[in-house]
Each structure stands twice: as structure tokens, then as C-alpha cells.
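Fold it.
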Amino acid sequence: SMVYFAGPRQPIDFYEIDPVVEKISKNPDYFTYLRDSRAKWRIILGDARLTMAKAPANHYGIIALDAFSSDSIPVHLLTREAFVLYLSKLREDGVLLVHISNKYLDLAPVLGRLAETLGLAARINDDESAERLGKYQSVWVLMARKEADFGSLARKKAWKGIETKATVGLWTDDFSNLLSVFNW
């Protein structure tokens, strides 16, 4: 749906691993966001981490990660090495926006630890009040090299500091611990 709100000077690249998702997203019997968008967009098929590695350095103003809401998450997209890649593809003033809503896992401490390790500013927005409005709760984490890169969002009360937990270590390509973030 983000593509629908983008303007003609806001190109969007979608990194998608599943060709069926691409096919469905382009079918106007199901969705018209792509068809009706004013933005120039493209879908890049393949594992996002592998295909994004081919993107030019400092290319993106925003990278939005939205792959963690199911019960089986792609852990390799939440490692130090993955975030080093994302940062290399972001402009100096760019931001990472990570959707971490999940019924089974609390991924906030993982992102807090990544921010701490990589020296990033990080904020979290948990709209838990949304459940009262009849929609699912949504949790987003915003990360950038500097607090100033958040712009006016840094002044909004909904975006709070993100904390780490001693029980949640730094996730790397060689280590992750889903049990440490499981909602028991």
C-alpha cells in the first residue's frame, strides 16, 4: 500500500522472495495499488539480502523492512551483517523503518542491541491502543545514523526510545536466539 501514497519523484524498489506474491500484487482483481500508483516502482525478485547487495551504495533514503509478522521470521535479515548492508545502501541521512509486529516474538530488544552495537539512533512506536479500534497492533522501529535524521518524528510522543535486554545478545550470521525473544 505504501506505493499508492508515493509521488512521481519517489521511486520504490520492492524486494520480494516469492514470485507468487509479485503475481498477486500486480493482479488488479486483488490489488490496484501498483496499477494506480504515481510512483515509478519495480519488484526485484530474490532474497532481499542477496539482491539488495547489488544496489548502488548510498542509494536509498528509506529502507522499510516488513518481513517479521509471521510465526516463521527470516532471522538472516535481523543480523549485524544484514544491518551493515542496509546502512551501506542508505544515504547518509537515510532511515531504516522496521515493522516488527509479531504475536509470538518481541523483536524490539534485537533491534535495540543492533542500534547500540552499530551506534544508531533508534525509536519504537507501538500503537497498542489500535486493538481497541478493531485493528491489529502495529509495532515499528525507526533507526538512523543520527537522531536529527528522524526529523519531526523525533518530537512525537508516540516514538519512544528503544531498550535492550541483558538476555538478548547481538544477532549475527553466526548467532541468534529466538527463545530469548519469545513471548511466553
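The chain has six helices and seven strands.
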